[in-house]
Amino acid sequence: MTDALSRPNADPTRMHSVTPETTAIIDMVLDYARRRLLDTATPLDKPMPPAELRRLASGSISEDGLGGRRALALFENVLAPACLTIDHPGYLSFIPSAPTKAASAFDLIVSATAVYGGSWMEGSGAVFAENEVLAFLAREFGLPESAGGVVVQGGTIGNLSALVAARDHAARRLADRGAARPDRWVVIASREAHSSIASAARVMDVDVVTVAVDETGALHGDQVRPALEQYGDAVIAVVATGGSTNFGIVDDIASITALNDEFDVWLHVDGAYGLAAALAPSARHRFAGIDRADSLIVDPHKWLFTPFDACVLLYRDPAIARAAHTQHAEYLDTLNDRAEWNPSDYSIQLTRRPRGLPLWFSLAAFGAAAYRDAIEDSLSLAQRIADEIRRRPELRLVRDPQLSVVVFEREGWDVSDYAAWSDRLLDEQRAFVVPSSHAGRPNTRFAIVSPRTSFELLVGILDTMR
Ligand SMILES: Cc1ncc(COP(=O)(O)O)c(C=O)c1O
């Protein structure tokens, strides 16, 4: 270990001051970011084996540093090409991300301005702008004007934070009635609910009761009712999915939220991927009933064209979430004693980057109509390519797409055929389409998010399955 005393002439401000060295680093980094953002032909790239990366990129951290130029060259020439280009039009796996140019560029400003997004005291301007986005989305979903929340890291944290608020609310209500807490709390969700719901339940040490879905994969209120009757006061929340990850299926939210007429239960909608489609006039009807949700999430880094990572978490009554999440400490009381909006009060986190700002900037710059158009484009492309799949005798559509996920099988292919085909597509730098499965049968899926994904590109991929 180097003793500070052994570097008597070291300048501790070297990294923070404006000098020829730091100016050159800023110019190089901004130039690289600019080239990347304006490049229309960035390849898909592919992961590199660990041994290869060790050979090419080990040893970058040293006592004296590589210098900005060499470190950046290492990233540009070795590390970046070992990362998939998620915003490539041929990236069609999992749930892609396709940030707008404005949102990606503005993310640089979020870093450059060193804004803290946890409290109004420290970041009121940023918090105000993020709240404009939250209010816009709350209006789109029909939530009351008093709704509010926070932009968190991702859907997993959003779902966990909402369920923690719901449990806190359930516990307070039982305490108010003088009733005992149940031995085990319960979350009711469908079999098709995202794995983050089970993960949240594990973190919270509560049980998930899974309820069967209909033949289209959607959860209905009728299927939820018996579980509500059975588990009564032990139920923290019912989780409906607004666009399942595997298929993009939207639960029958109206019939689920209508259960509130009979059972006073918290209704959470996990719309991490799909709820963005509520902005599109042609798909809005699929989310009927969402205006009655107690909490919901939608991930801007999925279909609202924002860079990683961002999840909008909204509560019908934010005061409930504040009661559950506000952290108390002597040094924080100065924040908590004020009646101001502190985003940290609404989720599992304290320090936060104002990660809603790139979406705010892009929405403010282009307007909501541009978002509606881009989402409509993915929706109609999904229908067109589903028609094409139906026409091809060697292919079978597993389910009719509702949003922008299209799942299909190739007759006669087993898992290894899908894997070899998928590897070939990536080796040829044509597309990233990984194998998937449903009910034990292998398949593959197109998850379409980028407006740059074309019908011709998808048809070209289908042609490779002949
Ligand atoms: C429906 C749904 N919920 C939750 C998540 C988890 O979101 P994140 O990956 O941002 O944590 C996903 C991710 O794909 C999802 O599709």
Q: What's the topology here?
A:
Blueprint: H1 20-38, H2 50-57, H3 68-79, H4 101-112, H5 120-140, E1 148-152, H6 155-177, E2 186-190, H7 195-204, E3 207-211, H8 221-231, E4 235-241, H9 253-257, E5 266-270, E6 295-298, H10 300-303, E7 311-315, H11 318-325, H12 333-336, H13 357-366, H14 368-391, E8 395-397, E9 405-410, H15 415-427, E10 435-438, E11 441-447, H16 455-463
Parallel strand pairs: 2-3, 2-4, 4-5, 5-6
Antiparallel strand pairs: 1-7, 6-7, 8-9, 9-11, 10-11
Helix pairs in contact: 1-3, 4-13, 5-13, 6-7, 6-11, 14-16
Bound molecules: pyridoxal-5'-phosphate.
Pyridoxal-5'-phosphate (PLP) binds near residues 273 and 299.
Structure description:
It is a single chain. By secondary structure, the chain is α/β, with parallel strands linked by helices. The chain folds into 2 domains: 105-366, Aspartate Aminotransferase, domain 2; 368-463, Aspartate Aminotransferase, domain 1. The protein has helices at residues 20-38, 50-57, 68-79, 101-112, 120-140, 155-177, 195-204, 221-231, 253-257, 300-303, 318-325, 333-336, 357-366, 368-391, 415-427, 455-463; strands at residues 148-152, 186-190, 207-211, 235-241, 266-270, 295-298, 311-315, 395-397, 405-410, 435-438, 441-447. Strand 10 and strand 11 (441-447) form a beta hairpin. The longest helix is centred in the last third of the chain and has 24 residues, at 368-391. The model has no long low-confidence stretch (mean pLDDT 97). Bound molecules: pyridoxal-5'-phosphate. Pyridoxal-5'-phosphate binds at residues 95, 154-156, 159, 194, 196, 241, 245, 270, 272-273, 299, 311. Keywords: Decarboxylase, Lyase, Pyridoxal phosphate. Belongs to the group II decarboxylase family. This is Glutamate/tyrosine decarboxylase-like PLP-dependent enzyme. Its cofactor is pyridoxal 5'-phosphate.
